[in-house]
Amino acid sequence: MTMTTGAASRAVGFEQVTKAYGDVRAVDGLSLELHPGETVALLGPNGAGKSTTLDLLLGLKQPDSGSVKVFGTSPRQAIVAGRVGAMLQSGGLMEDVSVVELVRLACALHPKPFKVDDVMARAGVSQIADRKVNKLSGGQAQRVRFALATAGDSDLIVLDEPTTGMDVSARQAFWATMREQADQGRTVLFATHYLEEADAIADRVLVLHRGRLLADGTAAEIKAKAGARRVSFDLEGAFDEAALRRLPFLTSIDISGQTVRVQSSDADATVHALYGLGVYPRNLEVAGLGLEQAFVAITEAEEAKQS
Ligand SMILES: Nc1ncnc2c1ncn2[C@@H]1O[C@H](COP(=O)(O)OP(=O)(O)OP(=O)(O)O)[C@@H](O)[C@H]1O
């Protein structure tokens, strides 16, 4: 991938990056470029390489080969320059300090800090300013990590499973704030297992599998890539279950009483064949896959290819 000098200084790029632990290739020839103002979700099954990718991006791990550039410099240089804010899953919070003391420290360390009160308010931790950080609930600790990640005017915000442990209103407030950050031209990259969040929030979705990029596009493009559609209908009276199971292009079928739900790689052909069985389906619905089903279809197809 080649970038012009101006674009390179604004972009975040992985070029043919590989990182192995013994025999396990956690990241395997990964190339991608992230742009200002993008909100990007990083998805993948357990062990796909998401955390390793974020660690490489933050300079916490070094690639075995390939290069990681953050705004045209190394991840370390970008962090020292205050261009990166991060919220990691495991990042322990200091013991025995209060929330406001910790946020003050993060602001003091940032080259382009925001006002402590603003950071606290944005992260929704003003009410617990004097609480010791080792006495916080899981969701409160996440909000404090969020405050630390947004203590200054960074250009890239990296979030690993940011909403784990947050209640519904905390999640909504969190994502509204992240949307503002992206609207102001920052790049927001988050790894998540909550596919509905990726669907609702991300402009771009990256699907990792065994360290490789399986899909890269909008949520709608990823759903289309999976190809399959959902068909559901009700049948009256007795019907031939075996014949239903033999319908063409089915990738899955679930028969529950009189209700049948199938997933088909060619819904038109499946529905046509259904009428050919001489049954009269009621409440027939044909719908695209949700991001979660598309994700499962894409990763399972890849597993099947590799085994
Ligand atoms: N320090 C390590 N030593 C050895 N193997 C590791 C190490 N860290 C990660 N791995 C392996 O590398 C692969 C990628 O792990 P990684 O944590 O990046 O995946 P992930 O997508 O973040 O997974 P999860 O969704 O479970 O958090 C896995 O097979 C994991 O077992």
From TrEMBL:
<dbReference type="GO" id="GO:0005524">
    <property type="term" value="F:ATP binding"/>
</dbReference>
<dbReference type="InterPro" id="IPR050763">
    <property type="entry name" value="ABC_transporter_ATP-binding"/>
</dbReference>
<dbReference type="InterPro" id="IPR027417">
    <property type="entry name" value="P-loop_NTPase"/>
</dbReference>
<dbReference type="Pfam" id="PF00005">
    <property type="entry name" value="ABC_tran"/>
</dbReference>
<dbReference type="InterPro" id="IPR003439">
    <property type="entry name" value="ABC_transporter-like_ATP-bd"/>
</dbReference>
<keyword id="KW-0547">Nucleotide-binding</keyword>
<protein>
    <submittedName>
        <fullName>ABC transporter ATP-binding protein</fullName>
    </submittedName>
</protein>
<dbReference type="InterPro" id="IPR017871">
    <property type="entry name" value="ABC_transporter-like_CS"/>
</dbReference>
<feature type="domain" description="ABC transporter">
    <location>
        <begin position="12"/>
        <end position="235"/>
    </location>
</feature>
<dbReference type="InterPro" id="IPR003593">
    <property type="entry name" value="AAA+_ATPase"/>
</dbReference>
<keyword id="KW-0067">ATP-binding</keyword>
<keyword id="KW-0813">Transport</keyword>
<keyword id="KW-0046">Antibiotic resistance</keyword>
